[in-house]
């Protein structure tokens, strides 16, 4: 068990945690959730000893080992990939080196022999004799090829380093596992492997993630960081979200009797409990939900942005025609032979093994860069709004406050643009009061994305182009954006690493490859499971 006792942390007048008391127990996976800046990553660092709180202490059951996902990709540059993973079991690594140092001595004594024997015994008890093969197996399962195992970390690509550091944290079956954004820069296959690994994990896991699909797949509990406190709720993220929304609605329903409210909530618990039996975390999650009582369901204090897109006019029959589009960058073919027509009702998710191919494609069809060959043509009825992956150019002028920044994007056809009009759009994205006078050069990444969404809503578009729309957003904003795109009746062209966003919004999948495209009218999950798609993919990438 690991417990936080009276943890208090403040930076000047800003209080992150105020006397937080919480226990994490074996067999459970806790998703740490909270708004951006609430202190999720800071709490992980307090538990791991990287940050000392102003008051309170962290207690761990004696003899238990903790492992933490390292965020510094350069910390192990002079070590081999294989050794970096093995260093995840710090005590075993020390014992191994102490033993090897004794064997390397020229004047080996009887005392050295006794000491070496003791170390050999410790080494064996820690699984040292299979450590190299175990580390190699873990690396291979995470998609790190055998030929990379003996390379130095400084000689492997950044996306490989991420996997090596993840393998380091998982190595040796730690009793307590702390993971901060473990799915960053992982492909869908590797994320699936990690979901299965953690679903079967029998020790304590604490994970910070903005990936709702991942949280739903692995978590038995949610630890909500809100208003300087942390409260643990039973169930995964979706259960927490839906139950808190239901409780909030019931709290405002003054006509419904308490007995009826209780019945509705208990039926809700029973439904989720039944669904839990079909999930990867079947046993532990269902047991946890079966123990849940009516009083455990409470409304959330969170605020969700109001993301509402209205179309000034519907799309016509001609929307977007792409013919034989291709692009090569620095000798590398990003995509070629891209041909498709967008139809009414399409919400298309674009995928590729190369994220640069997706961003480049979106930049081309938005006139930001040029293709090497081929054409694209937008229909005359199309009014489009684009959310780029990199929004730097939109915030280059630092003298603007939010009100002035948004005013410059008001369409010329929009009348009666006053302060209240602009405040309304900014307010929907949770900018209120004096916040609207904030300068754009001090905005966080999430605030900039929310500004961009305000700008897009102003345009009343019938076509939305979204390049990684969930980047920098907190779970509340991601959920609101996701729900908005489900409800939106216009055209959506998107790419995202958020599995749930992709699955719930897209009805068509187009994969860009160096040798053509795969174009399927199906959901994202269906696409991932389709054997014909898998065969086509391997052929087109070879």
Provide a short characterization of the protein structure.
It contains 19 helices and 18 strands.
Assembly type: single chain
The CATH superfamily title of the largest domain: P-loop containing nucleotide triphosphate hydrolases
CATH hierarchy: architecture of the largest domain: 3-Layer(aba) Sandwich
Describe the global form: globular
State the strand order across the main sheet: 5-6-7-3-8-9
Number of helices: 19
Any low-confidence stretches, pLDDT <50, length ≥5? Answer: none
How many beta-strand segments? 18
- Give the termini separation: 48 Å
Instruction: Report the helical percentage.
Output: 25-40%
How would you portray this structure in words?
The chain has 542 residues and is an alpha/beta fold. The chain folds into three domains: 77-173, no CATH class; 235-296, no CATH class; 320-541, Rossmann fold. Helix content is 39%, strand content 21%. It contains 19 helices and 18 strands. Strands 5-6-7-3-8-9 form a six-stranded mixed sheet, with helices on both faces. It has a six-stranded mixed sheet with strand order 14-15-16-12-17-18, sandwiched between helices. Helix 7 links the parallel strand 6 and strand 7 (204-208). Helix 9 (237-252) packs antiparallel against helix 10 (258-276), helix 10 (258-276) runs antiparallel to helix 11 (282-290) and helix 16 runs parallel beside helix 17. The longest helix is centred in the middle third of the chain and has 19 residues, at 258-276. The protein is globular and about 90 Å long. The two termini are 48 Å apart. The model has no long low-confidence stretch (mean pLDDT 90).
């Amino acid at each position: 068990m690991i417990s936080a006792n009276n943890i208090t942390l403040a930076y000047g007048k800003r209080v992150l945690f105020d006397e937080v008391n919480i226990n994490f127990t074996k067999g459970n996976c806790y998703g740490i959730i909270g708004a951006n800046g609430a202190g999720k990553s800071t709490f992980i660092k307090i538990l791991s000893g990287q940050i000392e709180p102003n008051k309170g202490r962290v207690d761990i059951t004696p003899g238990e080992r903790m492992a933490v996902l390292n965020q510094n990709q350069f910390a192990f540059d002079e070590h081999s990939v294989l050794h970096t993973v093995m260093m995840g079991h710090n005590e075993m690594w020390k014992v191994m080196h102490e033993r090897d140092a004794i064997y390397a001595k020229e004047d080996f004594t009887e005392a050295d022999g006794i000491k070496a024997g003791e170390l050999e015994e410790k080494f064996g008890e820690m699984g040292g004799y299979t450590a190299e093969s175990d580390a190699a197996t873990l690396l291979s399962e995470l998609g790190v090829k055998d030929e990379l195992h003996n390379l130095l970390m400084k000689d492997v690509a950044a996306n490989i380093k991420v996997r090596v550091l993840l393998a380091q944290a998982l190595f040796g079956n730690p009793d307590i596992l702390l993971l901060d954004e473990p799915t960053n820069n992982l492909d869908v296959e590797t994320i699936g492997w990690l979901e299965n690994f953690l679903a079967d994990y029998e020790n304590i896991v604490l994970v910070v993630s903005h990936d709702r699909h991942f949280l739903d797949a692995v978590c038995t509990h949610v630890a909500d960081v809100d208003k300087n406190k942390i409260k643990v709720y039973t169930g995964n993220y979706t259960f927490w979200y839906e139950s808190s929304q239901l409780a909030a609605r019931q709290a405002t329903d003054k006509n419904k009797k308490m007995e009826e409210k209780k019945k509705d909530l208990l039926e809700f618990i029973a439904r989720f409990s039944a669904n839990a039996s079909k999930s990867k975390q079947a046993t532990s999650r269902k047991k946890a939900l079966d123990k849940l009582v009516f009083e455990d369901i409470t409304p959330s204090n969170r605020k969700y942005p109001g993301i509402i897109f209205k179309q000034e006019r519907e799309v016509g029959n001609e929307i977007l025609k792409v013919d034989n589009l291709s692009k090569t960058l620095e000798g590398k073919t990003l995509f070629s032979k891209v041909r498709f027509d967008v139809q009414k009702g399409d919400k298309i998710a674009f995928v590729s093994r190369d994220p640069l191919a997706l961003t480049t494609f979106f930049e081309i069809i938005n006139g930001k860069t040029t293709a090497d060959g081929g054409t694209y043509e937008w229909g005359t009825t199309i009014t489009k709004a684009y959310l780029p992956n990199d929004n730097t150019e939109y915030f280059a002028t630092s003298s603007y406050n939010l009100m002035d920044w948004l005013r410059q994007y008001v369409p010329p056809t929009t009348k009666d643009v006053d302060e209240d009009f602009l405040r309304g759009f900014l307010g929907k994205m949770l900018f209120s009061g004096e916040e609207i006078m904030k300068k754009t050069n001090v905005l966080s990444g999430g605030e900039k994305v929310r500004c961009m969404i305000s700008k897009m809503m102003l345009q009343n578009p019938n076509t939305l182009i979204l390049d990684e729309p969930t980047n920098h957003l907190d779970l509340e904003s991601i959920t609101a954006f996701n729900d908005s795109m489900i409800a939106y009746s216009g055209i959506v062209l998107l790419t995202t690493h958020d599995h749930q966003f992709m699955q719930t919004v897209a009805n068509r999948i187009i994969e860009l490859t160096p040798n053509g495209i795969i174009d399927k009218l199906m959901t994202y999950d269906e696409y991932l499971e389709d054997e014909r798609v898998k065969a086509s993919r391997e052929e087109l990438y070879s």
